Amino acid sequence: MIPRWRRLISKLFVIPQRYVLGIMGLLAVCNAYTMRVCLNLAVTQMVNNTKSEESHYDPDACPDDSEILINGTVSLKPYAIFDWSESTQGLILSGFYYGYAITHVPGGYLAERYGGKWTLGIGLLSTAIFTLLTPIVVKAGGATWLFILRVLQGMGEGPTMPALMIVLARWVPPHERSRQGALVFGGAQIGNIFGSFMSGFLMAGDGDWANVFYFFGCFGILWFIFWSILCYSTPNTHPYITDEELKYLNETVTSADTKSVRDPVPWKAIVRSVPVWALLFAAVGHDWGYYTMVTDLPKYMTDVLKFNIATTGTLTAIPYLAMWFSSFIFGWVCDWCVKNGWHSIKTGRIIHTTIAATGPAICIILASYSGCDRFTAVAYFIASMALMGGFYSGMKVNALDLAPNYAGSLTAMINGTSTISGIITPYLIGLLTPDSTLVQWRVAFWVCFAVLVGTNVVYCIWADGKQQWWDDVRQYGYPPDWKHGSLQSSSEDKEKNKKAESSL
Q1: Helix, strand or coil for residue 68?
Q2: pLDDT tier at 19 (50, 70, 90 boundaries)?
Q3: pTM recorded for the entire structure
């Protein structure tokens, strides 16, 4: 019998609890990305790069109005107290991803064992605290201490995606996954939009870059308070979900059960699964293109196109706004086509991943060849990020298709491994652009083009959209000659394996 207080509280919510979770998940990702990317824009005001500009002449340099504000006054960067080279800045920006990669698999394990609520919440809370401490730490210890702090921030955010995948696998019916995926993971674009705009706003007019870290650190702590009150790991543990929604989710969601301890993760089968490797390649391509834009677009706007910091903050936000809107369109189209039988889940994932990989690859190359035509270059960057919105109804939710029961561990493995892109790209771009000239940046964009297109080809050939046999052996059984790696199984073999498993 459900307590009366639970019924009363459930009536206060106008929308179903799975959508409340979706909104809070969106804010979680938003919060994670604001704390992740705020340094990308702040570093342009932390570093005094006038010496390097004076020592190198670039014949292709764009007209420089970066020091002229909207009201015509001159900005002298009064808080630019550090003298870091481009490679040092790249190393600092990549530091986050060292920690981010380390805690992915442990985070997925903790989320599957103890639930995604506290795994996600405590991780982001720690990152918020580290963000608040950033100005104090960097002024005390310089680049070295900042790099270490960024590694710790990455460790706090590492469990974010695995924990979210676990929660979504427990809460979201299969036919709603593309839309919910677009909603939740679209929070990355909201974070980039909000983070870029607010960073530019807080630093405009000789504003102190330290305010950026204080603001977003407090924002993260506020989110944690609401997350703790409103969200739960599974529908069956939610204290004020309606009876109707609970019944619906238990009937439609594969992993809506209350068990927090499942069978051991089938790592051997996972690493020998061809669709998993295809997904990993797609993730590497996505992360390479995405981190190139997220980490280095503000520097390109400032160093090459010569926008001032206020304009850079606004123009950096617009491409992510386009990506956010397009992710909903792509998600709706994919769900609608699957529901109406126009194409299979597998085909939908391939189509949207291809759009999201090849489209941006072409656009960033065109942007680099636009030279100092700022309007055209920015238009191409906006188009590239808008097309990248297809990832969220493509490969980003593919882990839920392949392994709803082990979505956390699979996502942890995929995201943790693909994070190597986030480690490599900022430092590599720093090495490729020592003088931050247009020609040097063009080379960096060609490398990004090759990675995006190459990894997408692999995904198109070997991707899958069905639940894999190793995700639920009791249902699918072991394939024959599993020890030899065969992935085929006859119906008779499956039936034998089901009977064998039922006796365990």
Answers
A1: strand
A2: confident
A3: 0.71
DSSP string, 336-400: HHHHTTSS-HHHHHHHHHHHHHHHHHHHHHHHHTTTT-HHHHHHHHHHHHHHHGGGGGTGGGHHH
Q: Are 111 and 166 in contact (CB under 8 A)?
A: yes
Residue 71 exposed, middle or buried by CB count within 10 Å (0-12, 13-18, 19+): exposed
First-to-final CA distance of the chain: 33
- For residues 492-504, give the mean pLDDT: 43
Residues 6+ away with beta carbon under 8 Å from 456: 282, 285, 353, 354, 357, 358
CA angle 320/282/327 to nearest 5° reads 30
What's the count of helices (H) and strands (E) in the chain, helices before strands?
22, 0
Which is more confidently placed, 444 or 308? 444
Give, in order, the Cα–Cα distances in Å from 358 to each of 417, 451, 461. Answer: 22, 10, 15
Q: Can you give the pLDDT at residue 259?
A: 46
Contact predicate 203/47, CB 8 Å:
no
CA neighbor of 233 nearest in space, from 160, 164, 157: 164
